[in-house]
Structure formats: C-alpha cells, structure tokens
User: What shape does this take?
Amino acid sequence: MTKQQSKTRTGRLVDRKHVDTLIRNYKLNRWVHNTKRLGKPDALSAWFSLETLKEFLELAEQQQADGLKVYYGVYPADYSEKPEYRGRQTVVFVATKEKTNAAGATVNKDIYYLNGSEAQILAFNEASLCPPNCSPDGNGIDTDGIGITIFENEGTMHVI
Assistant: This one.
C-alpha cells in the first residue's frame, strides 16, 4: 500500500493546558447553550477505538486519500439507529484528496468511491458519544475521579 502525502502539513501535538482551554471555552460558549436548547446534555466528546479508526484510514489510503476533514454535525431528531443520540452533536470524518482548482488554489476534495454501482462518500461516524455514554448518570461529568495519564520522563514511560 502506497501512502499518499499531502503538500499541506497541518496539525501538531498540543499540551494539556491547550486542551483544557479549548474544552473550557467550548463548554462555556457552545455546550451550555446547546444543552439548554436540547433539554438534555449535548455531547462533549466522541470516542472511536484505534482499531476502527485504523480500518477507516486504511480504506482512505486505498482510495488515494491524503487527508481528512472533520465535519461537525447533529443527529436528526428522529434518528432511529441510536435514539439516545437524537439531537446531539457529533463529528464525521471524510476522506479527502488535495487538488488544485482552476484558480490555482489548493482545495481538499471529499472522496467518493464506487460501492457496487453507487457512488458513496468515504466517511466515518457513529462514535461513542459522551453524554450519553460516559458516566452512570449520563451527564458527561466524570464522577468517579478515575483517569489515566501517560507520560515519559528520562526515557521511561509512566502511567498514573
């Protein structure tokens, strides 16, 4: 399998302070309002297993993808596959290919592939949303105080 390389490099590792700032800002500026409007706690996070993400990334590479778009979305009010997700926000990963448009600008085009005789967008969704799947009371707040931190110090990996 050949890896596709995008001309544009984006993203970087960030520290805990950066993550905490983003989450705090989101909760104060978006989540509170979404929750009031919904009448139930909106999703704070979306979890995917590494295994399923790797499978999606392998399929994306097979289709010559060189990137991913992450779209924000909201499940419809009548979503029947997982009724507990109705109205809650989510993320959708869409495989992309970098192209140059007629104006000479770089664009990241969503990839479509043939699935039988039908063109399908190469997309991935259905994360485990928190809430509702995060704590016994389903409110999105970690009430047990249990967490895991992994860090490296002088070449030794520590888990606390």
